[in-house]
Protein backbone atom coordinates (compact mmCIF):
# COMPACT_ATOMS: atom_id res chain seq x y z
CA UNK A 1 0.00 0.00 0.00
CA UNK A 2 1.35 3.45 -0.90
CA UNK A 3 1.87 6.01 1.88
CA UNK A 4 -0.70 8.85 1.99
CA UNK A 5 1.74 11.43 0.59
CA UNK A 6 2.37 9.29 -2.49
CA UNK A 7 -1.33 8.65 -2.99
CA UNK A 8 -2.07 12.37 -2.77
CA UNK A 9 0.60 13.11 -5.36
CA UNK A 10 -0.80 10.42 -7.65
CA UNK A 11 -4.28 11.89 -7.25
CA UNK A 12 -3.30 15.47 -8.05
CA UNK A 13 -4.11 15.30 -11.76
CA UNK A 14 -7.64 14.01 -11.15
CA UNK A 15 -8.23 16.52 -8.37
CA UNK A 16 -7.33 19.47 -10.57
CA UNK A 17 -10.13 18.54 -12.97
CA UNK A 18 -12.91 18.56 -10.38
CA UNK A 19 -15.32 21.51 -10.56
CA UNK A 20 -15.28 22.28 -6.84
CA UNK A 21 -17.01 25.01 -4.95
CA UNK A 22 -15.39 26.32 -1.78
CA UNK A 23 -16.17 23.66 0.83
CA UNK A 24 -14.60 21.14 3.15
CA UNK A 25 -13.63 18.04 1.21
CA UNK A 26 -11.85 14.78 1.90
CA UNK A 27 -9.58 13.00 -0.56
CA UNK A 28 -10.10 9.26 -0.33
CA UNK A 29 -8.54 6.24 -1.96
CA UNK A 30 -10.76 3.33 -3.02
CA UNK A 31 -8.67 0.17 -2.75
CA UNK A 32 -11.22 -1.94 -4.64
CA UNK A 33 -11.13 0.20 -7.79
CA UNK A 34 -7.65 1.73 -7.35
CA UNK A 35 -9.45 5.06 -7.70
CA UNK A 36 -9.23 8.48 -6.07
CA UNK A 37 -12.32 10.42 -5.14
CA UNK A 38 -13.36 13.52 -3.27
CA UNK A 39 -16.11 13.36 -0.64
CA UNK A 40 -17.75 16.02 1.48
CA UNK A 41 -17.27 16.46 5.22
CA UNK A 42 -19.66 13.60 6.11
CA UNK A 43 -16.93 11.12 5.20
CA UNK A 44 -14.77 12.59 7.96
CA UNK A 45 -16.79 10.44 10.39
CA UNK A 46 -15.15 7.38 8.87
CA UNK A 47 -12.03 5.98 10.48
CA UNK A 48 -8.86 5.07 8.62
CA UNK A 49 -9.48 1.89 6.59
CA UNK A 50 -13.09 1.88 7.79
CA UNK A 51 -15.22 -0.80 6.14
CA UNK A 52 -18.62 0.38 4.96
CA UNK A 53 -21.28 -0.86 2.60
CA UNK A 54 -22.11 1.06 -0.53
CA UNK A 55 -24.22 0.41 -3.62
CA UNK A 56 -21.88 -0.16 -6.56
CA UNK A 57 -22.25 -1.70 -10.00
CA UNK A 58 -26.02 -1.81 -10.23
CA UNK A 59 -27.68 -3.67 -7.35
CA UNK A 60 -24.56 -5.28 -5.92
CA UNK A 61 -23.46 -4.18 -2.44
CA UNK A 62 -19.73 -4.38 -1.82
CA UNK A 63 -17.46 -3.74 1.14
CA UNK A 64 -14.78 -1.22 0.22
CA UNK A 65 -11.70 -0.01 2.07
CA UNK A 66 -11.51 3.76 2.17
CA UNK A 67 -8.24 5.43 3.07
CA UNK A 68 -8.68 9.06 4.08
CA UNK A 69 -5.69 10.82 2.57
CA UNK A 70 -6.26 14.46 3.40
CA UNK A 71 -8.96 16.81 4.58
CA UNK A 72 -8.71 20.37 3.35
CA UNK A 73 -10.77 23.30 2.10
CA UNK A 74 -10.55 23.44 -1.67
CA UNK A 75 -11.58 26.08 -4.15
CA UNK A 76 -12.24 25.10 -7.75
CA UNK A 77 -9.96 26.42 -10.48
CA UNK A 78 -13.20 27.00 -12.38
CA UNK A 79 -14.70 29.32 -9.78
CA UNK A 80 -13.80 32.33 -11.96
CA UNK A 81 -15.21 30.83 -15.17
CA UNK A 82 -18.70 32.08 -16.11
CA UNK A 83 -21.38 29.50 -16.81
CA UNK A 84 -21.95 28.48 -20.41
CA UNK A 85 -23.83 25.85 -22.38
CA UNK A 86 -21.89 22.83 -23.70
CA UNK A 87 -20.80 23.15 -27.32
CA UNK A 88 -22.48 20.83 -29.82
CA UNK A 89 -20.39 18.40 -31.85
CA UNK A 90 -21.53 20.05 -35.10
CA UNK A 91 -20.14 23.38 -33.91
CA UNK A 92 -16.92 21.69 -32.81
CA UNK A 93 -16.43 20.34 -36.31
CA UNK A 94 -16.50 23.86 -37.76
CA UNK A 95 -13.68 25.06 -35.51
CA UNK A 96 -11.77 21.80 -36.00
CA UNK A 97 -11.93 22.30 -39.77
CA UNK A 98 -10.72 25.89 -39.34
CA UNK A 99 -7.68 24.72 -37.36
CA UNK A 100 -7.01 21.81 -39.72
CA UNK A 101 -7.12 24.01 -42.81
CA UNK A 102 -4.56 26.57 -41.56
CA UNK A 103 -0.89 25.96 -40.89
CA UNK A 104 0.39 29.45 -40.08
CA UNK A 105 -2.10 30.77 -37.54
CA UNK A 106 -1.73 33.77 -35.29
CA UNK A 107 -3.51 33.09 -32.03
CA UNK A 108 -4.72 35.94 -29.83
CA UNK A 109 -5.48 35.00 -26.22
CA UNK A 110 -7.06 36.89 -23.34
CA UNK A 111 -7.94 36.56 -19.68
CA UNK A 112 -10.70 34.06 -20.47
CA UNK A 113 -8.17 31.27 -20.99
CA UNK A 114 -6.42 31.89 -17.65
CA UNK A 115 -9.60 31.88 -15.56
CA UNK A 116 -9.45 28.09 -15.91
CA UNK A 117 -6.11 28.19 -14.06
CA UNK A 118 -7.69 30.12 -11.18
CA UNK A 119 -6.83 33.69 -12.22
CA UNK A 120 -9.89 35.97 -12.17
CA UNK A 121 -10.54 38.32 -15.08
CA UNK A 122 -12.14 41.76 -14.93
CA UNK A 123 -15.36 41.57 -16.91
CA UNK A 124 -16.89 38.06 -16.77
CA UNK A 125 -20.53 38.23 -15.72
CA UNK A 126 -21.02 37.30 -12.08
CA UNK A 127 -17.45 36.08 -11.46
CA UNK A 128 -15.14 38.81 -12.81
CA UNK A 129 -13.44 41.31 -10.50
CA UNK A 130 -15.78 44.09 -11.59
CA UNK A 131 -18.80 41.97 -10.64
CA UNK A 132 -17.43 40.82 -7.28
CA UNK A 133 -15.97 44.04 -5.86
CA UNK A 134 -15.76 47.79 -6.23
CA UNK A 135 -12.01 47.57 -6.71
CA UNK A 136 -10.68 48.76 -10.05
CA UNK A 137 -7.24 48.36 -11.66
CA UNK A 138 -4.66 51.04 -10.92
CA UNK A 139 -4.24 53.62 -13.67
CA UNK A 140 -0.77 54.26 -15.05
CA UNK A 141 -0.74 57.97 -14.19
CA UNK A 142 -1.91 57.29 -10.63
CA UNK A 143 0.81 54.69 -10.08
CA UNK A 144 3.47 57.08 -11.35
CA UNK A 145 2.24 60.11 -9.39
CA UNK A 146 1.29 58.71 -5.98
CA UNK A 147 3.63 57.00 -3.51
CA UNK A 148 0.61 55.92 -1.43
CA UNK A 149 -1.01 54.20 -4.42
CA UNK A 150 2.29 52.45 -5.22
CA UNK A 151 2.60 51.31 -1.61
CA UNK A 152 -0.91 49.83 -1.58
CA UNK A 153 -0.36 48.22 -4.98
CA UNK A 154 2.94 46.59 -4.00
CA UNK A 155 1.63 45.44 -0.59
CA UNK A 156 -1.27 43.61 -2.24
CA UNK A 157 1.01 42.34 -5.01
CA UNK A 158 3.49 41.01 -2.43
CA UNK A 159 0.80 39.04 -0.62
CA UNK A 160 -0.90 37.77 -3.76
CA UNK A 161 2.26 36.85 -5.66
CA UNK A 162 2.82 33.31 -4.28
CA UNK A 163 -0.80 32.25 -4.87
CA UNK A 164 -2.08 34.32 -7.78
CA UNK A 165 0.91 34.15 -10.10
CA UNK A 166 4.06 32.26 -9.19
CA UNK A 167 2.30 28.98 -8.27
CA UNK A 168 -0.40 29.06 -10.97
CA UNK A 169 -0.08 26.33 -13.60
CA UNK A 170 -1.03 26.21 -17.30
CA UNK A 171 -4.34 24.58 -18.11
CA UNK A 172 -5.46 22.49 -21.08
CA UNK A 173 -5.78 25.54 -23.36
CA UNK A 174 -2.13 26.51 -22.88
CA UNK A 175 -1.03 22.90 -23.30
CA UNK A 176 -3.00 22.32 -26.50
CA UNK A 177 -1.72 25.55 -28.07
CA UNK A 178 1.79 24.27 -27.37
CA UNK A 179 0.91 20.98 -29.09
CA UNK A 180 -0.46 22.88 -32.10
CA UNK A 181 2.80 24.80 -32.23
CA UNK A 182 4.69 21.49 -32.21
CA UNK A 183 2.56 20.46 -35.21
CA UNK A 184 3.78 23.62 -37.02
CA UNK A 185 0.28 25.07 -37.17
CA UNK A 186 1.01 28.19 -35.10
CA UNK A 187 3.01 31.16 -36.32
CA UNK A 188 2.82 32.92 -32.96
CA UNK A 189 0.70 33.39 -29.86
CA UNK A 190 -0.12 37.01 -29.04
CA UNK A 191 -1.35 37.14 -25.46
CA UNK A 192 -2.98 39.97 -23.57
CA UNK A 193 -2.23 38.09 -20.35
CA UNK A 194 0.72 38.87 -18.08
CA UNK A 195 0.76 35.51 -16.27
CA UNK A 196 3.53 33.77 -18.27
CA UNK A 197 1.40 30.62 -18.60
CA UNK A 198 2.03 30.16 -22.33
CA UNK A 199 5.77 30.09 -21.67
CA UNK A 200 5.29 27.76 -18.69
CA UNK A 201 3.37 25.41 -20.99
CA UNK A 202 6.32 25.34 -23.39
CA UNK A 203 5.18 27.70 -26.16
CA UNK A 204 8.18 29.38 -27.76
CA UNK A 205 6.60 31.86 -30.18
CA UNK A 206 4.90 34.17 -27.68
CA UNK A 207 4.37 37.93 -27.95
CA UNK A 208 3.31 39.43 -24.61
CA UNK A 209 1.18 42.35 -25.75
CA UNK A 210 0.73 43.79 -22.26
CA UNK A 211 4.06 42.73 -20.78
CA UNK A 212 4.74 40.23 -18.02
CA UNK A 213 4.17 40.22 -14.26
CA UNK A 214 7.36 38.18 -13.89
CA UNK A 215 9.60 41.19 -14.52
CA UNK A 216 9.91 44.57 -12.81
CA UNK A 217 11.20 47.73 -14.48
CA UNK A 218 12.56 51.06 -13.31
CA UNK A 219 10.65 54.07 -14.63
CA UNK A 220 13.86 56.15 -14.65
CA UNK A 221 16.70 54.00 -16.03
CA UNK A 222 14.60 51.20 -17.58
CA UNK A 223 16.58 48.56 -15.65
CA UNK A 224 14.69 45.26 -15.37
CA UNK A 225 14.84 42.69 -12.60
CA UNK A 226 13.12 39.37 -11.95
CA UNK A 227 9.91 39.52 -9.91
CA UNK A 228 11.14 36.62 -7.76
CA UNK A 229 14.16 38.70 -6.79
CA UNK A 230 11.91 41.61 -5.79
CA UNK A 231 9.91 39.22 -3.58
CA UNK A 232 13.13 38.40 -1.72
CA UNK A 233 13.78 42.12 -1.20
CA UNK A 234 10.23 42.61 0.09
CA UNK A 235 10.79 39.76 2.56
CA UNK A 236 13.98 41.38 3.88
CA UNK A 237 12.65 44.91 4.34
CA UNK A 238 9.22 43.80 5.63
CA UNK A 239 10.15 41.15 8.23
CA UNK A 240 6.93 41.62 10.20
CA UNK A 241 4.62 41.07 7.24
CA UNK A 242 4.30 37.50 6.03
CA UNK A 243 2.46 36.65 2.83
CA UNK A 244 0.05 33.85 3.75
CA UNK A 245 -2.74 32.11 1.90
CA UNK A 246 -5.15 33.21 4.66
CA UNK A 247 -4.80 36.78 3.40
CA UNK A 248 -6.21 35.76 0.01
CA UNK A 249 -9.97 35.43 -0.18
CA UNK A 250 -11.69 32.65 -2.13
CA UNK A 251 -12.59 35.26 -4.76
CA UNK A 252 -8.90 36.00 -5.38
CA UNK A 253 -8.86 39.36 -3.62
CA UNK A 254 -6.39 40.19 -0.84
CA UNK A 255 -7.30 41.15 2.72
CA UNK A 256 -4.96 43.82 4.12
CA UNK A 257 -5.58 46.27 6.93
CA UNK A 258 -4.81 49.96 6.53
CA UNK A 259 -2.09 49.52 9.15
CA UNK A 260 -0.44 46.77 7.12
CA UNK A 261 -0.51 48.89 3.98
CA UNK A 262 0.88 52.00 5.67
CA UNK A 263 3.71 50.01 7.25
CA UNK A 264 4.73 48.26 4.05
CA UNK A 265 8.17 49.25 2.75
CA UNK A 266 8.72 49.59 -1.01
CA UNK A 267 12.29 49.50 -2.37
CA UNK A 268 13.70 51.80 -5.02
CA UNK A 269 15.72 50.78 -8.06
CA UNK A 270 19.12 49.46 -6.95
CA UNK A 271 20.70 50.95 -10.06
CA UNK A 272 19.48 54.57 -9.89
CA UNK A 273 17.04 54.94 -7.00
CA UNK A 274 14.06 55.32 -9.32
CA UNK A 275 10.48 54.06 -9.02
CA UNK A 276 9.88 50.34 -9.63
CA UNK A 277 6.85 49.20 -11.62
CA UNK A 278 5.74 45.78 -12.87
CA UNK A 279 6.77 45.32 -16.50
CA UNK A 280 3.13 45.32 -17.59
CA UNK A 281 0.93 47.79 -19.45
CA UNK A 282 -1.33 49.50 -16.93
CA UNK A 283 -4.67 50.99 -17.95
CA UNK A 284 -3.88 54.35 -19.53
CA UNK A 285 -0.40 53.26 -20.66
CA UNK A 286 0.64 52.51 -24.25
CA UNK A 287 1.85 49.25 -25.79
CA UNK A 288 5.50 49.76 -26.90
CA UNK A 289 5.83 50.50 -30.60
CA UNK A 290 8.19 47.56 -31.22
CA UNK A 291 5.56 45.18 -29.83
CA UNK A 292 2.83 46.73 -32.00
CA UNK A 293 5.02 46.38 -35.09
CA UNK A 294 5.93 42.78 -34.25
CA UNK A 295 2.25 41.87 -34.00
CA UNK A 296 1.46 43.68 -37.24
CA UNK A 297 4.24 41.84 -39.09
CA UNK A 298 3.06 38.44 -37.83
CA UNK A 299 -0.56 39.15 -38.78
CA UNK A 300 0.49 40.14 -42.30
CA UNK A 301 2.51 36.94 -42.74
CA UNK A 302 -0.03 34.59 -41.14
CA UNK A 303 -2.80 32.67 -42.90
CA UNK A 304 -5.49 33.20 -40.22
CA UNK A 305 -6.32 34.56 -36.77
CA UNK A 306 -7.77 32.45 -33.95
CA UNK A 307 -9.08 34.51 -31.00
CA UNK A 308 -9.50 32.77 -27.64
CA UNK A 309 -10.95 33.94 -24.34
CA UNK A 310 -11.20 37.70 -24.82
CA UNK A 311 -13.97 40.24 -25.34
CA UNK A 312 -11.47 42.52 -27.12
CA UNK A 313 -12.76 45.45 -25.08
CA UNK A 314 -9.33 47.09 -24.96
CA UNK A 315 -8.31 48.62 -28.27
CA UNK A 316 -4.84 47.03 -28.22
CA UNK A 317 -6.52 43.64 -28.67
CA UNK A 318 -9.32 44.78 -30.96
CA UNK A 319 -6.78 46.45 -33.25
CA UNK A 320 -5.29 43.02 -34.00
CA UNK A 321 -8.66 41.72 -35.17
CA UNK A 322 -9.05 44.83 -37.36
CA UNK A 323 -5.60 44.28 -38.87
CA UNK A 324 -6.44 40.68 -39.70
CA UNK A 325 -9.77 41.69 -41.21
CA UNK A 326 -8.20 44.42 -43.36
CA UNK A 327 -5.57 41.91 -44.52
CA UNK A 328 -8.36 39.49 -45.54
CA UNK A 329 -7.25 36.85 -43.03
CA UNK A 330 -9.94 34.35 -41.92
CA UNK A 331 -10.92 34.92 -38.28
CA UNK A 332 -12.39 32.44 -35.79
CA UNK A 333 -13.43 33.39 -32.25
CA UNK A 334 -13.97 31.15 -29.22
CA UNK A 335 -15.24 32.96 -26.13
CA UNK A 336 -18.00 32.44 -23.59
CA UNK A 337 -19.58 35.85 -24.21
CA UNK A 338 -19.86 38.42 -26.96
CA UNK A 339 -16.76 40.09 -28.34
CA UNK A 340 -16.07 43.39 -30.03
CA UNK A 341 -15.05 41.59 -33.24
CA UNK A 342 -17.96 39.16 -33.65
CA UNK A 343 -18.98 40.78 -36.93
CA UNK A 344 -15.45 40.32 -38.32
CA UNK A 345 -15.31 36.56 -37.77
CA UNK A 346 -16.38 33.78 -40.11
CA UNK A 347 -16.71 31.50 -37.08
CA UNK A 348 -17.91 32.66 -33.64
CA UNK A 349 -18.36 29.98 -31.03
CA UNK A 350 -19.52 30.35 -27.43
CA UNK A 351 -17.82 27.94 -25.07
CA UNK A 352 -15.14 27.33 -22.47
CA UNK A 353 -11.77 27.33 -24.20
CA UNK A 354 -10.24 24.44 -22.28
CA UNK A 355 -13.22 22.17 -22.86
CA UNK A 356 -13.65 23.03 -26.55
CA UNK A 357 -9.97 22.82 -27.51
CA UNK A 358 -9.51 19.55 -25.61
CA UNK A 359 -12.40 17.99 -27.52
CA UNK A 360 -11.17 19.36 -30.84
CA UNK A 361 -7.63 18.13 -30.26
CA UNK A 362 -8.99 14.70 -29.34
CA UNK A 363 -10.96 14.64 -32.61
CA UNK A 364 -7.85 15.66 -34.56
CA UNK A 365 -5.78 13.00 -32.82
CA UNK A 366 -8.34 10.29 -33.60
CA UNK A 367 -8.43 11.32 -37.27
CA UNK A 368 -4.64 11.15 -37.45
CA UNK A 369 -4.62 7.65 -35.95
CA UNK A 370 -7.27 6.50 -38.44
CA UNK A 371 -5.21 7.91 -41.32
CA UNK A 372 -2.08 6.05 -40.17
CA UNK A 373 -4.02 2.78 -40.17
Describe this structure in words.
Helix content is 36%, strand content 21%. Strand 3 (50-56) and strand 4 form a beta hairpin. It has a single domain (89-368), classed as Rossmann fold. The protein starts with a helix and ends with a helix. The longest helix is centred in the middle third of the chain and has 20 residues, at 147-166. It is built from 13 helices and 13 strands. By secondary structure, it is of the alpha/beta class. It has a six-stranded parallel β-sheet with strand order 7-6-5-11-12-13, with helices on both faces. It has a four-stranded antiparallel β-sheet with strand order 2-1-4-3. A three-stranded antiparallel β-sheet has the order 9-8-10. The protein is elongated, with a radius of gyration of 23 Å. Helix 2 (89-100) packs across helix 13 (353-372) and helix 7 (172-182) packs parallel to helix 13 (353-372). Zn(2+) binds at residues 218, 221, 269, 272. This is Deacetylase sirtuin-type domain-containing protein. It comes from Frieseomelitta varia.
Query: Helicity range of the residues?
Result: 25-40%
Report strand order across the widest sheet: 7-6-5-11-12-13
Largest sheet: 6 strands, parallel
Strand content: 15-25%
Q: CATH H-level name... which superfamily? A: TPP-binding domain
Classification by helices and strands: alpha/beta
What's the mean pLDDT score?
A: 77
State the CATH topology: Rossmann fold
Order of helix and strand elements from N to C terminus: HEEEEHEHHHHHEHEEEHHEHEHEEH
Q: Could you name the CATH class?
A: Alpha Beta
* Second-tier CATH architecture: 3-Layer(aba) Sandwich
Number of domains: 1
Rg over CA atoms:
23 Å
GO molecular function: histone deacetylase activity, NAD-dependent; metal ion binding; NAD+ binding
Protein name: Deacetylase sirtuin-type domain-containing protein
Pfam family, one: SIR2
InterPro entries: DHS-like_NAD/FAD-binding_dom, NAD-dep_sirtuin_deacylases, Sirtuin, Sirtuin_cat_small_dom_sf, Ssirtuin_cat_dom
Amino acid sequence: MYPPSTLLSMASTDLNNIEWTTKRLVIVYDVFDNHFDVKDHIIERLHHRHQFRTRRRGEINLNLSIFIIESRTYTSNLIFVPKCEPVKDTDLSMLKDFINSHNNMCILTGAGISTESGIPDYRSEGVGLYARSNRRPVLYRDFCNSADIRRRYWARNYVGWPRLFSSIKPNSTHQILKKLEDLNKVRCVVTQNVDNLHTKAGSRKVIELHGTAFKVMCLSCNERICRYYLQEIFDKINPNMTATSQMIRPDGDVDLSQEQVEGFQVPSCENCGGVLKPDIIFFGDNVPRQVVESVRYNIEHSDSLLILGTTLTTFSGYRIALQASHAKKPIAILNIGKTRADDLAEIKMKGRCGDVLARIYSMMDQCEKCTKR
